[in-house]
Amino acid sequence: HTVSPSLQGNAHRIHFLENFKVVLEMQDPATGVKLQPQRLVITTIPHAITGEDIVAWLADRFQIDAQEARSFGSMLVALGYIYPIQDHKRLVVKPDASLYRFQTPYFWPTQQWPVEDTDYAIYLAKRNIRKKGILELHEQEQYNRLHKWMNHKWDFIVMQAKEQYRAAKERKKPDRVVFDCQERAYWVVHRPPMIFTQQSIMRPRVKSSVSIGALVKYCATYKGHDPFLSKCLPSNPWLTDDVTYWALNMPNVEIPTKMRVERWTFSFGELLSDPRGRDDFRLFLKKEFSGENLAFWEGCEDLKWGTAATMKEKAEQIYKTFLARGAPRWINIDGKTMEITVKGLKHPHRYVLDAAQTHIYMLMKKDSYGRYLKSPVFKETMKKAVCPEEHKFSDSQLEQNARNRRPSLSPIIIRQQEQEQKAKMAASAPVDITQVMSKLSKQDFQINTYRHIFDIFGNACFKI
Amino acid sequence: MACQGLQKGETLESLKRESETLKKKLEEERNKLNDVELHQVAEKVEVLSALSIKTRRVLKGHGNKVLCMDWCKDKRRMVSSSQDGKVIVWDAFTLNKEHGVPLPCTWVLACAYAPLSGLDNKCSVIPLSLDKNENLAAKKKSVAMHTNYVSGCSFTNSDMQLLTSSGDGTCALWDVESGQLLQSFHGHTADVLSLDLAPSETGNTFVSGGCDMKANVWDMRSGQNIQSFESHESDINCVKYYPSGDAFASASDDATCRFYDLRADREVAVYQKDSIIFGASTCDFSLSGRLLFAGYNDYTINVWDVLKGTRATILFGHENRVSRVRVSPDGTALGSASWDSTLRVSWSFSTGSNYIFRFIKLLFWVNSRLVLEFTVAF
What we know:
Chain A is mainly alpha-helical. Among the domains of chain A are: 10-106, Winged helix-like DNA-binding domain superfamily/Winged helix DNA-binding domain (Arc Repressor Mutant, subunit A), CATH 1.10.10.10; 117-196, Methyltransferase, Methionine Synthase (B12-binding Domains), Chain A, domain 1 (Orthogonal Bundle); 256-384, Regulator of G-protein Signalling 4, domain 2 (Orthogonal Bundle). Chain A has helices at 19-26, 51-62, 66-79, 117-130, 137-149, 154-169, 173-190, 197-201, 208-222, 237-240, 244-248, 258-264, 268-273, 275-287, 291-305, 311-323, 335-344, 354-373, 376-384, 395-403, 411-427, 433-439, 445-461, and strands at residues 36-40, 43-50, 82-84, 99-102. Chain A has a four-stranded antiparallel β-sheet with strand order 1-2-4-3. The longest helix of chain A is centred in the C-terminal third of the chain and has 20 residues, at 354-373. Chain B is mainly beta. Chain B has a single domain, classed as Methylamine Dehydrogenase, Chain H. Chain B has four helices and 28 strands. Chain B has helices spanning 12-32, 38-42, 356-366, 368-377; strands spanning 53-60, 66-71, 77-82, 86-91, 96-102, 108-111, 115-118, 122-125, 141-145, 150-155, 161-166, 170-175, 181-186, 192-197, 205-210, 215-219, 225-229, 236-241, 247-252, 257-261, 266-271, 280-285, 291-296, 301-305, 311-315, 322-327, 334-338, 342-348. A four-stranded antiparallel β-sheet of chain B has the order 1-28-27-26, with no helix packed on it. Chain B starts with 11 loop residues before the first helix and ends with a helix. The chains are: A mainly alpha, B mainly beta. At the A-B interface, helix 4, helix 5, helix 8, helix 9 and helix 10 of A face helix 1, helix 2, strand 1, strand 13 and strand 17 of B. Chain B: WD repeats lie at residues 59-91, 143-184, 185-228, 229-270, 315-345. Chain B: Residues 9-39 form a coiled coil. Chain B: Keywords: Coiled coil, Repeat, Transducer, WD repeat. Chain B: InterPro entries: G-protein_beta_1-5, WD40/YVTN_repeat-like_dom_sf, WD40_G-protein_beta-like, WD40_PAC1, WD40_repeat_CS, WD40_repeat_dom_sf, WD40_rpt. Chain B: One of its GO terms (biological process) is signal transduction.
């Protein structure tokens, strides 16, 4: 199985792409974690392991420090490959004599079963049969809820529960204890206790005058842009059957309208969510040599909302381009955030870059955005922006417009064009520098060389 | 089978009492920061000039109730689903039908531009193609699987993830390509009827509403229920975020729509009238958030002034229940779907100076009281 070195300067550190391979190694009778029996009153349950042994084994196997090993171990517990026997609700590895056991592969997350409410109902009913009063408060709530509206199949559920209970009784006691623990552990992972009213009471709130004030202000700010409250310029296409308004406001139009540019000044979010606005901002950042921030943010968005299959690959690419020491588009984030992020990237998930992304977003919002609004790039765009005259159609012209209604380019074609554009940009590999240099004029040579190299190399390194 | 398993010293009564006490405490905490009401702040806001909104496009083609519709990003195309078992893609501007997909399940309850879901417990994604002869239904890809009907669905920021709400009381996030369940959301105690994603700047949350009369706000990353509002008196049929993402509205069978402020963590307005006694099934905001369009089971669409709490105008035209209203992506028009098998598109006439004259005449005929307001404004 391929293993990819993703940390520069530490060749023997390995980035694991599939957790269960680790777990199999850990269970090897010769080289795995030391097994010991667990004493339960008069019974002895075999194959238990201690937290400290787990940590030691991981630290030795991957040559990492105890803290990292503990964090990795806790992740295996959180996912359900290993489960705690004693403090079964806290899904972490404690670096002491606390006991754990390997979960049976039947219950591994890699099986990717849909976690069915029916199974959970059967499980709760079965525990109820075995011993009344054993369900905890959140389990009782779940049980009542499931009973209420799985009522139509409750007979089936009770029958299944009784069957399973009867079958379990026929097992030997140690096996039964082990299985009960495994099953309980599985459900702790998949049906954790829900939020209670108590937590709601403690959540932070804002004064009404502040939050309501903000809502009212939003309406006032956008009133001029709301076609139900103010005129569209040149006219609302639905009203006059003239599509100029739509043509002028295409997503990637060269020259935007004044109204559109005005919206970019309302908030940083508005600027970023408009593709034309984002392009303008990108141009400004290029001139300030801080384009990597936006590129990183875009990479994070792509990771978060992208398809699961490409996630790990994308996370690695982002690490190589923006976070690794000496990376071509290294981003400047504080030490603590960098530490959390790099650690998280060893076992990447969709939201692993959240902390770093938020940090960079706030940096752009509080610093670059303000400067952008005062910059020559923005002023130039605003100056060139069009402000169309209001249409004044006569009745006969309106009738003509209605007759001339035409279909527009299908969104399918537009999407195909966008895909082709993206593919082209991604395919442009680092260019031969001599080709670039020969195009430059002698006078601008020095300044432009550095700028161009940065642009091309930067663009090629991370294109989504 | 009665509830079993109370712990020592507890009775159902004591548990119920404890729950009530906690709920009261929560209300107390919420009220501590309640230093002003929405209508008080709204007094300083200028009155809206009289609205004239007309329906001028009627899309006919479905053979039965239209249950759902949604706009395409291009601002003029729409998709609709109907009890006749068909999903149609329209260019609402030219009234052309562009695609028609027949489906095996007749109760197609929800469709977003591409994913659709219904009473067969599945949610499918249909990739659209330009080839008119292509059998689109055959390319349908099943993505989501619930244990009960799927009531609502929405793509996230890209079209590679899908969020669904279901009659099984849960919501779920799916990876479209693999069909893998990424996260599930548990907390509703009855069918979830509707969901809406927060506008992108405000992060990774969504709101859901259900038959348990609750509206819940969720964190997509952890699956946690982060806020809950329980003030409706009947099923919540629709939830929709305010454009800033700091508030949301709900439409309910109790004939009211309500407005919730997320930062203050409370309900701040109730939109109701004695003359409105039928349930509201759907709602959506205009671009600025000042207007709330709500479709009702009495065949009308009421347009509410969100800040002042009054009704700005009412739209007639549909001949049966209004099942869905949606403002177009650039805010220029309102699309509505109905059990009368049609879809309609409406827009404002009062913001086009060509129409002032006709506007005066119409208003005078509809409601003489409005003429007074109108002449004062002009």
